[in-house]
Each structure stands twice: as C-alpha cells, then as structure tokens.
Amino acid sequence: MDKLSSFEFENWSEKEFACLRETLASLAHPENVEWENRIVNTGYPLLSIYTKPLREIAKSIAKGNAHSFLAGNPCYYHEELVLQCLVIGALKDADEQMRLLPSFLERCDSWAHTDSLKFRITNENSDVWFEYAKSLTRAHGVFERRCGLLIFFKFLQTDKLQDIFAVLASMREEKEYYVNMAISWLVCEAFVKRRDETLAFLASDSLSLWTQNKAISKCRDSFRVSPSDKELLLTLKK
User: Which among 149, 197, 200, 211 counts the fewest CB atoms within 10 Å?
Assistant: First the structure.
C-alpha cells in the first residue's frame, strides 16, 4: 500500500498522527511556502503540499474512522486544517457535519480552510441546512460567515433566492474582505443562474458600494455573461 492510501486507521493515536505528519513532511515544497502564503494568507505554518495528494490522504482517512481523526487532529499546520475540511466534507451524515462544523470553523483563518467543504444537502434536509446557513451569516467569526454564504450557493436555483437576497441586504455593513468577496462571488453566480431576479436585486441598491462593484466586476469577467449584459451591468456600478 503506498503512502497516500495507508490512512484507513480505526483509531487515531499519537502514533497514527506521527505517521501522517511524516507523510505530510515528505510531500512538502518549502520553496513554495512564501508564494503560497501570499495566496492563502494564513497564520498557520505551511508545508506547501499540492491539493491532489491532500485529497487522496483525506479520502483514505474517510474510509477508516474519520471521527477518531477529526477528534484528535491537532491542526497545527495549514494542511492539517485542509485535511479536516476535506474529511468533514466526506461524511455522509448531514447532522454530523453540522455538529462538527462550529468547532472546525472557529479554527479557520483562511478561505483555503473553508472553500473545499462539501455539504450533504438533500430535499429532506434542505430547510435545516438553509436555516443553519442563515445562522452562520450572523456569527461572529469571519469564516463562519463565509461558510454560511458558501452553503447558499447550493440554493441559488431554488425558491430560497429572495431569502438569500434578504440576508445579503442585511449584511450591507459587512467590513471583512473575505466575507464581502464571498457575497460578490455569490451574486455573480446568482446572475448567471437567475439573471432577471439578480438584476432587480442589483438595481435595488441593497449592497455596499464595494461589494456591488465587485459583484459586477465578477459578472463582467465571466464568459457565462453576454456582452450586452456586461454593458448593462456597467450602468449599475456605484
């Protein structure tokens, strides 16, 4: 069994975590650390490991006792936070995901710790997830709020769109860059999928100047937005 598929442990003790650390160290690219941290902007020490092997390791962990790993993971390195994110996303139980997310999100200090999360949203639990996302957007932590917005992406083509817009309007005074970037990205995706409703929202002056202009910029950069709509959006810039 190669080193990227040998983490299907039933119980994670110091021995298993030491094995993981050894593997992570062998995959590190220290020459890339300074460059990578300009992108991920984290206070955690970086090893600079490519995403593909981290995904392979997380997949292997999830085949074993994922809960033991999640409970014991020290999350000292940036990559250990990324593994935590990927393993939580691999869980099939939505209730368990929601139970684990708060303590994980409290540790996060980078978009790279949250943006690979996957959420087990089904027709049966969608209302619960939506309310949970709304509660996150009101949370104290920057990456809790960003995570709530990430969950909203899953609801853009549902009857929750106007509710999403109401939440975004309530966040007009948001000051945090990574939250406002998520709002802009969300509005751009909404424009691509629900053009008319999103156009009306943009015309309603519900977003801050910076966020509205960034959302429009993202739309204008998208190949999924027509040239005529890109010109129309310019008229809505503040």
Answer: 200
